[in-house]
Amino acid sequence: MSNDQNLPGYRGYLTENTVTLAEVLKTAGYQTGMIGKWHLSNTQAQTPKEKHLAWLNHQTSYPLFSPLNQYPVNRGFDKFYGTIWGVVNFFDPFALVNGTQPVQSVAKDYYYTDAINDSASNYVRHFSEKKSPFFLYVAHTAPHWPLHALPQDIEKYKDVYKSGWDVIRNARYKKMINEGLFNAKQTPLPGRWDQQTKWPENADKDWDAYAMAVRAAMIDRMDKGIGRIIQTLKETGQLDNTVILFLSDNGASSDDAQNYGPGFDRPGQTRAGQTIVYPIKKQVLPGAETTFASTNEMWSNVANTPFRYWKTKAFEGGICTPLIVSWPGGLKAKKGSVTAQTGHVIDFMATFSELAGAKYPLVFKGNAITPTEGLSLVKIFKGEQRQAHEYLFFEHLNSKAVRYGDWKLVSLNEKSAWELYNLKDDRTETNNLARQNPQLLEKMKTKWFEWANSSKVLPKPLAANVN
Questions:
Q1: End-to-end Cα, the chain, rounded Å
Q2: Peptide bond into 306 cis (omega under 30)
Q3: Burial grade of 363 (CB within 10 A; 0-12, 13-18, 19 or more)
């Protein structure tokens, strides 16, 4: 996802010279709601650390999780139920609010994914009572770590991943090729990136297989809840005229999160005082509220099949995710078809503004607004070819990339050389053409640094001759 000068740094907030989708759509008469993870505020830590951990553990209270003017309901959303911070206990989330009011306690059978989906269905019913259209942003946390899932959901997947990383990755790749999602010649499956232990010799394979089963269970629960939202749209007569976009925010994460331990957004105890285990030695199975664990790079490599790497890396495994679009009454593209046209989340503003008849403002609440760089996706929805971006830029934790047509220039981190790929011929970035195309490399690198400096992506100006 491209960084933006209106969200400076990795931890930032939406500044006053930007507008949200909700703020723009409200000018066209839309009702607006959001459910789930916000994480676009200056999150406020407590001092000393002991006080902060007690706060995370729900053992003390404090009314604000970030400045109140940065809450969703003060950025254009009429209604909001969800979490202001990022990492949360799925059975008892920290920073859970309804509007601006902290939710002080939850039911014994509470599970955040269910609460998100059920709240979304309730919002649909509420909005459907009025004649004016509505916009609803549902931001699921699943399957973000910690790996928390319900026992009955885990049970369905407990044996699925026992065959291991390579067997499952190869099977997924074969299925993708056979179903026409990718062309085998243009999309070769990259080899393993290192010499990590093969699955049969993996001493932790029972734990690793179970961890992936928990991850699958989290997605299963999310999927069923999304089905309930769609059923609510049917029951309220809204489905045919509703545009649904479903996507992930990035490629699967590589976190070995159990190594982190309690800290800034990670509790050390449950509300009841039970110790939360961060199983560095994989001594406790994931799934329950009393563990904070994640899957590792190997499973992320499987989840990102056929691409390389994962979240935080600007290779395709970190930044390329599928977008699924449903619009029964308006989609003209063939049902079930796949397009190779490249889009970006920055395109959503232009897309929704066009569909809603809203105008992106030059000034909003007295503040000059940064021009949007997105291009509408509506032509793609109609089965047509749309104008493509000349350049697309990316940066996350010093991993960086720029796309220029079919060409992609990418660097793994601040110490890595730039690599150049032609994605039309080499979708999985296996054939580095940097040496053969030095002039193109320099042109694209210069463009990236121009963008990075003008957008304040990095903390200080950089020269284009830096890797």
A1: 20
A2: yes
A3: exposed
pLDDT-based confidence at residue 194 (cuts at 50, 70, 90): low
* Distances in whole angstroms, Cα of residue 330 to Cα of each of 107, 226, 242, 342, 352: 40, 21, 9, 21, 14
Tokens encoding 302:
């499987």
Q: Which of 35, 36, 106, 94 minimizes the C-alpha distance to 65? A: 94
Instruction: Please write the tens of the pLDDT for every residue from 223-258.
Output: 999 999 999 999 999 999 999 999 998 999 888 888
pLDDT of residue 144: 94
Can you say how many angstroms the Cα of residue 433 is from the centroid of all Cα atoms in its chain?
30
For the CA atoms of 54, 58, 60, 65, the dihedral, rounded to the nearest 10 degrees, stands at 90
Q: Assess contact for 291 and 285: CB atoms under 8 A.
A: yes
Nearest by Cα to 377 from 336, 335, 333, 407: 333
Which pair of structure tokens corresponds to residue 97?
């609010």
Structure-derived torsion over alpha carbons of residues 82, 84, 85, 91, reported in degrees to the nearest 10: -30
Question: What ranges make up the beta strands (E) of 5-133?
Answer: 31-37, 79-83, 96-98, 101-102
Q: Model confidence at 195, in pLDDT bands (50, 70, 90)? A: low
Model confidence over 29-55: pLDDT tens digits?
999 999 999 999 998 889 999 999 999
Sign of CA dihedral 53, 221, 344, 26: negative
Question: What backbone phi and psi angles, to 5 degrees, belong to 394?
Answer: -145, 145
Mean of per-residue pLDDT scores for the chain: 93
Q: Identify whether the C-beta of residue 36 lies closer than 8 Å to the C-beta of residue 141.
A: yes
Query: How many Å apart are CA 250 and CA 314, to the nearest integer?
Result: 10
The model's confidence at residue 466, banded by pLDDT at 50, 70 and 90, is: very low
The DSSP code sequence of 134-162 is EEEEEE--TTSSS-B--HHHHHTTTTTTT
Enter the tokens of residue 131.
């004649």
Place of tokens 């290192």: 194
* Cβ contact 137:22 at 8 Å: yes
Residue from 46, 114, 122 nearest 85 by CA: 46
**Does the structure show a pLDDT above 80 at 375?**
yes
Contact status, residue 73 vs residue 79, Cβ threshold 8 Å: yes
Angle (deg, nearest 10), helices 112-128 and 205-235: 10
